[in-house]
Amino acid sequence: MIKLLRPFLLLLLVSGLGFFPLHVFAAGNDGSEIKVLDMRLSPKDTLFNIANMKPGDWATRTITVENNGVRDFDYHMQLRNTGEKKLFNELVIEVKVDNQELYQGKLSEFQSKLTRKLKSASDDQLAITIRFPEHLGNDFQGLESSFVLTFIAEGKDSKIVEDGAQGIIGSSGSSAGFRLPATSTNLFNLLLLGSVLSISGFVLLLINFYKRMKLAQ
């Protein structure tokens, strides 16, 4: 009788497992829960927070994408503007992994189909650089750009996990190595002052010359 019940009990057990998430039954050596699909970012909240970038400046930050789950997954990145468009449309972003360039171009043209495969218990260290183009002039001083870089992981069972980090780039009131010429310059005043000083010196020389001539007579 017991032998007849064994296949039935085994079938009942397998059927019951289907009603529970797999990660409920996965645990680490310390008793902590191990998820089937688990992506983590470091840092996860703020990646860039720069208030004084100038034309010609750039900044590089490293963000780590970790696969702490029991399954491999594919992930890709999306970038979304969350502030004013003027500076956002001009800033340049570069994304590299192990000196391999994944993307280089404007923030506003960032391609969302940059897919990477990440095995379980491994990580990617992405070097992300934001560049303030040198040709941007006075019109972009005092502006600010904010954006969110979102990472989306997807496993074989089509389960999706999302996480993201934000960036804030502000421009200062002066530029490095490049500045549009000011319309109200002091150059004319300096030239006028130099001319007056030159004429005054010449007049003094003439006066001294005539004084010497009178004394010689």
From TrEMBL:
Organism superkingdom: Bacteria
Positions of transmembrane segments: 187-210
Key words, A-Z: Membrane, Signal, Transmembrane, Transmembrane helix
Leader sequence residues: 1-26
Protein name per the record: LPXTG-motif cell wall anchor domain-containing protein
Organism: Sporosarcina saromensis
